[in-house]
# Entry
Amino acid sequence: MSDIIHLLPDSVANQIAAGEVVQRPASVVKELLENAIDAGATDITIKIVDAGRTLIQITDNGKGMSETDVRMAFERHATSKIRSAEDIFSITSMGFRGEALASIAAVAHVEVKTRRPEDDCGTRLVIKASEVESQEPVSCAVGTSFVVKNLFYNIPARRKFLKSNQTEQKMIFNEIYQVALAHCNVAFTIYTDENLFAKYPVAHLKQRIGTLFGRKLETQLLPIEGQTSIVAIHGFVGTPEMTKKYSYLQYLFVNNRFFRQKSFQAAIMRAYQNLISPKDYPPFFVFFEINPAHIDVNIHPTKTEIKFVEEYNIAQLLEASVKHTLGKNNVVPSLDFSDEVNYSDLFAITTGNNVKLPALDINPHYNPFESVRSTAPSSVAGGKPSFPMTHKQSTTNWEQLFDAAPRQAEIPVQQTFLSALNSADSAPLQESGMCMQIQKKYILTQGKTGLMLIDIKRAHSRILYEKFLAQLQSTKQLSQRTIVPIRMETSAHEMSVLQEILPQLAELGFEIEHFGNTTFIIHGMPADVDTAQAEQIIHQCIAEYEEGKSLNARERIALALAQSAALYRNPTMQNDEMQIFIAQLFQCSEHNLSADGKRAVVLLDYAELFKKFNS
Ligand code: ADP
Ligand code: MG
# Structure
């Protein structure tokens, strides 16, 4: 039998190697960006068509390549960045494995134009499936421009594994953010599908973070610093108010290279202990400067996992630095209920609508004291105190609890409380039971079997959530025009999310126009969303939407909007306003939970209460 082992042709070997380096369009973007940075570029333009499936073009003003180098660059293990194995331990460039271009050229159509400053004429090289198709002189600007077309055209299986355009584009942006954060001295211009998407001008780190993730975050960043003989740490962490439910705003860089490291993330989280819920993620942007001999970058082909020789000590230093900053800035848990707020500027007042008073079925003979007397003994006789309540108990109790608000009561949900009260044909509301506002945060009222404490913000989020969800299902639009159009600036990241949810927001009565780049114009808002808070609500809605990943799109929008539009600051409410509020809450199918499932109502069982005086 003849021998059976043979060497694979380069094109096949490259394609196999490409599997490690080029998994999706975002990997191409990452590699080309890193090459541009390594070439000393200060201005980089990125063009993405069809989420990178059809075209990825990266143009830089770096040092360019000679006619021979550009040809060599596509060979496997061809690099200008290291010469010997020891060099791996003194790496200061982003790349060094010499694999990226060979891998990309094995799975796509590649065209490169490049010119060094010292050359009069540049070179154009075209490669398909690792084969050079043409190489010729060309006149072009100093720097390099790579065009990568039809990624995975020769590996249909790979193409099939790609996710939706939206998801692929998000992954591309994650790569761009990582590079853009680590290189604030480089300007970026980004086009998607031929449209200018965003510009990130040269900036300080803090400004760059603001450009990418929003001005609000920018104002809530605290600087951190730490230094030992082996490492220097600098960067920013977010205040506890900025925590997120996912870790997408957590960035670590070592020598300006993005990396992931569980133990460092945990160290930062420890510094926030007792300041935030353990389920939340504070934003952080932390940079380590370290002698490259103390880390190993080469344990993963995409170089996002990095070994630190002094990992434990660095984690300790990191924790201490963050704690120090939080302490210095006096970051302690604070709940501010004391602001005097004018109720009228909390709600949009709908004018011109023929507003009817909610058709509350109120018992004019209702006497709260009677109900106490009549129900208390039976509860005691039942022998089962129901505080703290379970959800199950609460649902059954609630049904009878609130006489004044039968669930079937017809309340036109689009009305605001104030507009209902102010309307011309409204009769004064009958007193049915006293409500009391506690710390402007809770409503205390009495039901049949116990005292009820209602968290206003949470309850409001529930009312809005169910309303929005119903509206999204019926696609009924109820919009109030803003008096003057509101111009709103978003971060690049917010822009992509907002674009995604604009159609659903329109169904809810938001009239928002994309004005180009990261600017939007708000022309109208749903009737019961406060136009004075329009911008803030939309910014927050975007953030909330990002976090509700397990829900379907409608639920996510409704939840995001309910969370962001729920009473911004807690108003002083009149008794009748509180009653309408409670009535609206009790129309909801899950009236004891906030939109995001937190407890909105607490029942203090009378039996339990009375027992306290009997001991
Ligand atoms: P690596 O970055 O690991 O060296 P690559 O395959 O990414 O390997 O690139 C190979 C070589 O091509 C680089 O070492 C560099 O010399 C050259 N090169 C790649 N991109 C550029 C660019 N944008 N400008 C100048 N030179 C580049
Ligand atoms: Mg490279």
